[in-house]
Write a structure and sequence with these properties.
Strand order of the largest sheet: 1-9-8-7-4-2-3
CATH architecture of the largest domain: 3-Layer(aba) Sandwich
Radius of gyration: 21 Å
Number of helices: 11
Low-confidence stretches: none
Order of helices and strands: HHEHEHEHEEEHEEEHHHHH
CATH class of the largest domain: Alpha Beta
Shape: globular
Bound molecules: 4'-deoxy-4'-aminopyridoxal-5'-phosphate
Number of strands: 9
Helix content: 25-40%
Strand content: 5-15%
Number of domains: 2
Mean pLDDT: 97
CATH superfamily of the largest domain: Type I PLP-dependent aspartate aminotransferase-like (Major domain)
CATH topology of the largest domain: Aspartate Aminotransferase, domain 2
Length: 338
């Protein structure tokens, strides 16, 4: 044989126990890790389908929605972005991206790949968008879809007045997509009341579950747009009409769509159970209180937060300005090591 056995596999896997407090994944609790060591199930086993049904109910609580089309995408938060964009968009559709950091630009890149005509409304770095900025951009572009991240993890900016944006979208016959990957569980989010048409979150952030399984929800307006498509959704894997049949969202008999990882389902179910047992409002309050104490401590040390307006700071991701004359690479490296 030309390719030898790699010697590394003669040694056991060693994973260090790191404190995860960056804008990536958070530490999973022992309960979540234990849940993930349960035996595997097939995707169509009744017991697995039951767990999927329970997860759907959990997501409806987390998102505060009654949407039947509530499910998970097998993939990380980016898969949620892709699913939102590829289901809603057809070639030439005008979309507007609200940019408060990296994620509006990323959503624009994805939408462009699905053939959309992409425009941007950008906030000053470290600031949220004003309602006026958004309204003017709506008048200029008349978009069919508007995207905004509730919390942009690259800047720590929290976009407020999403319910006003929801009203604006209805007036312009536009769909509202909100990225709640890094904010859900640390800030109020009311999908139905705020008239959000599509929302997706990350399993590995505030929820402290495993990465790779992304809760997502589509309301009836979003489904109507999908039903009225002239062309097929460009991704089979992310086609919500097919995926929703697998997740039992439409009252039809369930179809096999793909093999969902039962291990990730166990982990996510346990993570959702922990939130349900704490209560969502308590969890949000805890994040806000911890963030407030951290901010006070940072300010007492003579440092500044990156987002000047306190009401526009995320509580899950607290971005601190590196003082002038200090090498940010060294600070970041120190945090990674320690
Ligand atoms: N949106 C936001 C706001 C995020 O913070 C992230 C992850 N940092 C993503 C989307 C993408 O998620 P993932 O890395 O799980 O693909």
């Amino acid at each position: 044989m030309e390719v030898e056995v790699p010697k590394v596999f003669m040694k056991p896997l060693l994973v260090p126990n790191k404190t995860l407090m960056g804008p990536g994944p958070s530490n999973a609790t022992r309960r979540v890790l234990d849940a993930m060591s349960n035996p595997l199930l097939g995707e169509c086993h009744q017991e697995n389908l039951q767990i999927m049904d329970e997860i759907k109910e959990g997501i409806k609580y987390l998102f505060q929605t009654q949407n039947p089309a509530t499910m998970c995408i097998s993939g990380s938060g980016h898969a949620g972005m892709e699913a939102a964009m590829c289901n809603l968009l057809e070639d030439g559709d005008v979309v507007l991206m609200g940019v408060t950091g990296l994620w509006g630009n990323r959503a624009g890149d994805i939408a462009q790949r699905y053939g959309a005509d992409v425009h941007y409304v950008r906030a000053r770095c470290g600031y949220a968008l004003s309602f006026e900025d958004i309204r003017e951009a709506f008048q200029t572009y008349n978009p069919k879809v508007f995207f905004i991240a509730q919390g942009d993890s690259s800047t720590g900016v929290l976009q407020s007045f999403i319910s006003d944006i929801g009203d604006l979208c209805r007036r312009f016959n536009c769909l509202l997509v909100v990225d709640i990957v890094a904010s859900l569980g640390s800030a109020e989010f009311l999908m139905d009341e705020w008239k959000v048409d599509v929302a997706y979150t990350g399993s590995q952030k505030v929820l402290c579950g495993p990465a790779g399984i992304t809760p997502i929800s589509f309301n009836q307006r979003a489904l109507n747009k999908i039903k009225a498509r002239q062309s097929k959704v460009k991704s089979y894997y992310f086609d919500i009409t097919l995926l929703g049949q697998f997740w039992g969202c439409f009252g039809t008999s369930r179809i096999y769509h793909h093999t969902v990882s039962s291990t990730l389902l166990y982990g996510l179910r346990e993570a959702i159970a922990i939130v349900c047992q704490q209560g969502l409002k308590n969890m949000i309050r805890r994040h806000i209180e911890c963030s407030y104490r951290l901010q006070k401590g940072i300010e007492n040390m003579g440092m500044e937060m990156f987002v000047p307006e306190p009401n526009h700071r995320m509580s899950s991701i607290n971005v601190i300005k590196i003082p002038n004359g200090v090498d940010w690479r060294k600070v970041s490296q120190y945090a990674m090591n320690k």
